[in-house]
Amino acid sequence: MNGVLAVYRKEMLTYFRSPIAYFVVAVYLIGTGYFFTYNVFLTGTATMTETFRNMSILLVTLLPIVSMRLFSAEYSARTIELLMTLPLKAWEIVIGKFLGALTILLLMTLGTMVNLIPLYLYGNPETTTIFAGYFGFFLLGMACLAVGQLFSALTQNQIVAALITVSVLLGFWFIGHLQNFQASPVLRGLLGYLSFSQHFSAFIQGLVRSEGVTFYLVVCGIALSLNASYLQWRR
Amino acid sequence: MSAAISLESVSKRYGPRTIIHDVSFSVEKGEIVGFLGPNGAGKTTTMRMIAGFTAATSGTVRVAGFDMATENEEAARRIGYLPEHPPLYDTLDVSDYLKFVAKVKGVARNAVRADLDRVISACRLEAVVSSEIYKLSKGYRQRVGLAQALLGKPEVLLLDEPTAGLDPGQIQETREVIRAFGAEHAVLLSTHILPEVTLICRRVAIINQGRLLAIDSPAGLQRASEQTNRVTLMATGPAEAVRSALAELDGVQDVVVNETAGGAGQLAIDCRTDAREGIECEIARVVAGRWSLHRLQREQPTLENIFLRYIGGEQR
Q1: Which residue from A13, A79, A89 is facing B87, i.e. has the nearest CB?
Q2: I need a labelling partner for B293 at 20 to 30 A (CA). Which of A90, A159, B145, B226 fits?
Q3: Which residue out of A85, A92, A156 would a mutagenesis test of the B interface target, given it has the greatest number of B Cβ atoms within 10 Å?
Q4: pTM, two decimal places
Q5: DSSP letter assigned to residue B291
Q6: CB under 8 A, 24+ apart: contacts of A200-203
Q7: Which residues on B lie below 8 Å from A83 (Cβ)?
Q8: ipTM over 0.90
Q9: CA–CA distance, A73 with B132 (Å, rounded to integer)
């Protein structure tokens, strides 16, 4: 556990001494602010549903920039040689780094909550729906970061890591659309289940279903354990 | 009490290529062993296997008695490792970086400050403690890397070319740090700088093309290569008579006599001898007794010669 904390602390120091974290958080908040203004003030409805939809696609495209450096930068600076020879288990490195990235996600999430102030001041929104939406939003972000971290461990080039991650995440985002081309109900079900966006849609409509929660947590679990095994195997 | 580092017929293969062939040796506590070989000989790979960064394909690597294949983490607590490229986080301060390493190495919270101070003064980093690492010169980067390895007083110190990139003054200081540390701990340092090895190492391992060619004290390696003992002299006299007189001497294996360009019977003589002490005095007596001797010199094989001979032998 000590190892996880030390890695986490190191990650946080690194994130905030490079402009990337500030940049991503800033772009994200500006984008969300725009969507919020557009969806709420122009339509005059006090719900976050549409804003959540826009926020999620922005999240999926921006998070790979947060995750790309997690391992790629360690490879290119050769600091991986230090990490792997210190008394750290592979999972401690993986979890420490993941928690670091989650902190950035948390900042992004908390930042968007500024929008809730005018929503509650001038409207009468449904608190449970908003809560469910934020819960789903955070779960989605976790899954994206875990996938991004896995791809970051596979290449020493940060740009390559980000591009692969964006492609894969967008692939899983839109995979549900393939349902329309499938006749077999099994395939349709499978495609729907794999879709990042369909699970998310349930959350923003106020539905916290165990199926959706499990889906994102399982994606995290698979990506992170593959990540740890890959580090072990690399020896 | 087992050796601090021990390798038993260790090999490393990457696909069809064998990088390390059946290497065995050990390093005891309180001993500095130099790991000598040309670039690409397998020094770094061997270091990485001992440090636990890569696993051996076959054979056993043990550090402080722990098998690197199965008890990796226990062993890692006892290893300080400076890789070939100092593994530094450029955006961190020197002190944040060292604190990170100290914490991971399990240095107790209340001992971190003292341990940091110890390595900072040993590596002369006082002036840069709060600088960001990317601003440091090459010499400082190398020393921050060394400081990191010294944290937590590891039983085993692995240094891959620790003096690379340092200026002569810094090299001197770094050697002193290593020498002091090596008095109580086991140190394995790789280098291709020969004098470094003679200065601080008790034993030298010579490696080339992934094979361990020899491991002995610098003096032992010199004794072992007696045929490179040479005595050269300048004398005046009849070439043939001088040659046969010298060739009769016990311990002289081969004599080459050349007339020098100066003429007037001046000879440049080159004798190959065995390693016996005082053989040069007997040669001097023989020559000076009958003819005139101008100069005589005994050449010991330098580590350089030994090194080249081993490597040359390997390539043939």
Answers
A1: A79
A2: B226
A3: A85
A4: 0.84
A5: S
A6: A200/A52, A200/A56, A200/A136, A200/A137, A200/A140, A201/A53, A202/A136, A203/A52, A203/A132, A203/A133, A203/A135, A203/A136, A203/A137, A203/A139
A7: 87
A8: no
A9: 17
